[in-house]
Design brief:
Layout: H1 18-37, E1 41-42, E2 48-50, H2 51-57, H3 63-67, E3 71-73, E4 79-82, H4 87-96, E5 106-115, E6 127-136, H5 141-157, E7 163-169, H6 176-189, H7 196-204, H8 215-221, H9 233-248, E8 253-255, E9 267-275, E10 285-289, H10 293-298, E11 304-310, H11 311-320, E12 333-337, H12 340-355, E13 360-362, H13 369-379, E14 383-387, H14 389-394, E15 396-401, E16 407-411, H15 415-426
Parallel strand pairs: 1-5, 7-8, 12-13, 12-14
Antiparallel strand pairs: 2-4, 3-4, 5-6, 6-11, 7-9, 9-10, 10-11, 14-15, 15-16
Helix pairs in contact: 1-5, 2-4, 5-9
The structure holds adenosine monophosphate.
Length: 427
């Protein structure tokens, strides 16, 4: 009978077991490879930051800041938040470490856990992992496309199929106020048909209404004025260039006039990458340009563009599309020992085996050879190194072929080479 479980993972948070971690590892490997290829440098920021960084950098009227931050008060009386996103922390680090003086654009990336107090539901965790790429110091449309292309290529390299980029422009300080006015006028005329959250958003952050997933709000949104009709010359030209580049790179996209992002700091390009042709798709990745963010944090105008992808959603799709099989860990050799001296020797020969790039298994808590051979068999070890007190004294061990039962004596210092030779022959 299993004991009654007293403690469990907090709601919306998961343990990552060895098989899960093989998926994460695969994503991290591909991300690192592409970061190198595209010339991005990795940074790591603390998991907690000053609450005000997010209040300023993410925006006071966003769900993230209004409802989703985990805030803690330290013994020293500071208020820190578990990071709900990376971008404000990148902007802080950029100024704090004098990256303003680095050659520009400054290209940074990271991956790690984020925390948002979400309503528990499918695809939304309270602790989830993202990878995040940012380019600081370029106004050019090609930099937006560099980010989109990079995310597109990472997802393709992971084997994901049937994806599409949703793209829009949400204008800038020049043109967005005109659009906002017209949107508010329209939404007020339909206020009765909006959900309670959107009624509130209409007052605090009307663009966010466009983000609402509720059926009744979607009907209202479908007839709302579109930002595309209000773009100023510069924003319009920017969007046209981005779309031309996407065409040239043959990236499939859908110009979605109602795409906005949940965060306040976006300007011009916004995009999301999601599965195509499925009902109610959720975004795997999202981002865009945020030329006004760095000024809020560092009092200096630095144009910026970037994006983040949710690793759990990517892994869920990798599983659904069956594009990655975690490899069963293969063992080259099992080391079986008899007696205390042999146990110590087992630990000592590990380094030699590592040098020869041989992956062993062993079980020091077992004393009987029979038990150890059973484990070796279960693990599928093709060879077993056997050492008892006598072998330790002689400086030699027995190497047994598990299939044929043939065994021979090998000097300890030759074990690595010998196993390597045997493994080669076996192939
Ligand atoms: P955001 O930082 O909100 O722009 O989200 C970027 C990506 O992170 C999304 O497209 C999702 O893939 C992922 N994501 C955001 N929030 C969550 C969450 N609560 N749980 C899991 N993944 C998330």
């Amino acid at each position: 009978m299993s004991p009654k479980i007293k403690f469990q993972t907090p709601t919306g948070m998961k343990d990552l077991l060895p098989e899960d971690l093989e998926f994460y590892q695969r994503v991290f490997e591909v991300v690192d490879d592409f970061a190198q290829l595209f010339g991005f440098n990795k940074i790591q920021t603390p998991i907690v930051e000053d609450v005000q960084l997010f209040e300023k950098g993410t925006g006071g009227s966003t769900d993230i800041v209004e409802k989703q931050m985990y805030i803690l008060k330290t013994k020293g009386g500071e208020y820190l938040a578990l990071r709900p996103e990376f971008t404000p922390a990148f902007a802080r680090a950029y100024f704090e470490h004098g990256m303003v003086n680095w050659p520009h654009p400054v290209k940074l990336y990271t991956f790690g856990p984020l925390f948002r107090y979400e309503r528990p539901q499918a695809g939304r965790l309270r602790q989830f992992y993202q990878f995040n790429f940012e380019i600081f110091g370029s106004k050019k449309p090609i930099s937006d496309v560099e980010i989109i292309y990079l995310f597109w290529e990472i997802l393709k390299e992971l084997g994901l199929k049937n994806l599409i980029v949703h793209i829009n422009s949400i204008g800038d300080k020049q043109c967005r106020p005109y659009y906002k006015k017209s949107l508010v006028r329209y939404l007020r005329s339909r206020e009765r048909d909006l959900c309670p959250d959107c009624k509130r958003r209409l007052k605090t952050n009307p663009l966010r209404v466009l983000d609402c997933k509720q059926e009744k709000c979607r009907t209202v949104i479908a007839q709302a004025p579109q930002m595309l009709d209000y773009l100023c010359g510069e924003c319009k030209q920017h969007l046209e260039r981005v779309l031309e580049y996407l065409d040239a790179l043959e990236i499939p996209y859908f110009l979605n006039p109602y795409l906005v992002r949940g965060l306040d700091y976006y300007t011009k390009t916004v995009f999301e990458i999601m599965p195509d042709n499925v009902p109610n798709p959720t975004a795997l990745a999202g981002g865009g340009r945020y030329d006004d963010l760095l000024k809020l944090i560092g009092k200096r105008d630095v144009p910026a563009t970037g994006a983040a992808a949710g690793i759990e959603r990517i892994i869920a799709l990798m599983k659904e599309q069956n594009v990655f099989k975690p490899s069963k860990k293969k063992i080259d050799v099992f080391v079986a020992q008899l007696g205390d001296k042999a146990k110590v020797k087992t630990l000592k020969i590990l380094k030699d085996l590592k040098k020869a790039k041989i992956y062993p298994a062993f079980s020091l808590s077992k004393d009987s050879l029979g038990d150890q051979l059973k484990i070796a068999d279960k693990l599928g070890a093709p060879f077993v190194i056997i050492l008892g007190e006598e072998e330790v004294l002689k400086g030699k061990a027995l190497v047994r072929n598990m299939k044929t039962g043939v065994q021979k004596e090998v000097k300890f210092e030759k074990l690595g080479q010998e196993i390597k030779k045997l493994l080669k022959k076996k192939k």
